[in-house]
Amino acid sequence: MKAAKREPLYIKAKREIQRAITNGDIVTDGKLPPESELAEMLSVSRATVRSALQLLEADGVISTRHGMGSYVNYAAAAGMRMRIDIAKGFFHLIMESGYSPSIAEQSCVISPLSDEAARSLLLPTSEEAYIIKRLFLGDGIPAFLVMECIPLRFLSDPLEADNLPESVFQIAADHCRERIEYSNMTIGTVKDIDDIGRAMRLPEAKTLLRLKETHYTKANKPLIFSDIYVNDDIIHFQVRRKIG
Fold it and tell me: CA nearest 169: which of 155, 179, 159?
């Protein structure tokens, strides 16, 4: 059993800025204050504010114009809560659904790849990998059960369950020889989930979303495979689609 991990400061700053935008507290003629003023207002560094603004821009809530500052996209700020087309950690996804995130259980063991992971990573099933299994909660309710497979050959140093970042993207940045450049995901549902349902403390009749995600390097090489089960009572995804 693992204690809740502390919320990253830049995510807290992002949420505070978005709340201030919604309340109309900090915007003048559609424009946010400079980074230095936001940093002073939130009692954080400019680097933390910059990271928070980058997340807001990725969400489509603001647009940053070089030399001019950051402007609010009001339609996006009001209507888009959580986008599945932008890579984010699970804490971030849970918070964007309106819940406080934590990790209830976490393990990290070395094991041969499953058939599915081996196919996704283009490796034999005899390949040894770290299998990271974690249960993410939103306000104490199971939100994600995540199993991530990282082949030993791709690591620059060993993994320890007690010292893992919550985001697979940060795990790759900290521990793999290469970073994640992009991810491909398939989405389905599962109902025959005896073991998974018990792990997530859910009723037998509950249907879960299942996300199978392969993360790739800049050279288009498969790096990590994630098998993710989602409690859609907690998590609600949205996708922004454009014409043309």
Answer: 179
CA-nearest of 93, 95, 153, 158 to 132 is 158
Can you list the residues of the chain whose pLDDT is less than 50? 1-3
Helix axes 35-42, 46-58, angle to 10 degrees: 110
Asked if residues 208 and 200 have their Cβ atoms less than 8 Å apart, the reply is: yes
Strand-pair partners of 208: 190
**What pLDDT digit, counting tens, does each position of 156-193 carry?**
999 988 888 888 998 999 999 999 999 999 999 887 66
How many contiguous H segments (helices) and E segments (strands) does the chain have?
8, 8
Q: Quickly count: other Cβ atoms within 10 Å of residue 41's Cβ.
A: 16
Give the separation between CA 235 and CA 146, rounded to whole angstroms: 14
Specify the pTM. 0.68
Query: How is residue 46 annotated by DSSP?
Result: H
Query: What DSSP state is assigned to residue 26?
Result: S
